[in-house]
Amino acid sequence: MNTRGGVPMGTKQDPSRFDCYAAARPDEHMFVLLDRDPLAPFLVSIWSSVRIGDPEAARAKFEAMLQKFALRYMAEPDVDKASEALDCAMLMFHAQEERR
Length: 100
Known about the structure:
The protein is mostly helical. Helices cover 58% and strands 6% of the residues. It has one domain (25-99). Strand 1 (2-4) and strand 2 form a beta hairpin. Helix 2 packs antiparallel against helix 3.
């Protein structure tokens, strides 16, 4: 298990105890962020801040992400990947509604 700052980090070869592949339902939609994606640490931090009940930290991290990357992606949008990600998000919203 890799550790960064003493925190276990899952990898493809050595998953963490919260391994999403093992926990996923057979047909459950997933969206994976790799550490080489420049937005990934911001998005994971935002998710974490929301989950621990700290919306101000989530907002600050979102603002920091926009400050660092908004102009870059406005100039060179990654439409194909973003479109597929949005489709995945919509499928997730739909699946959650169906499970209610």
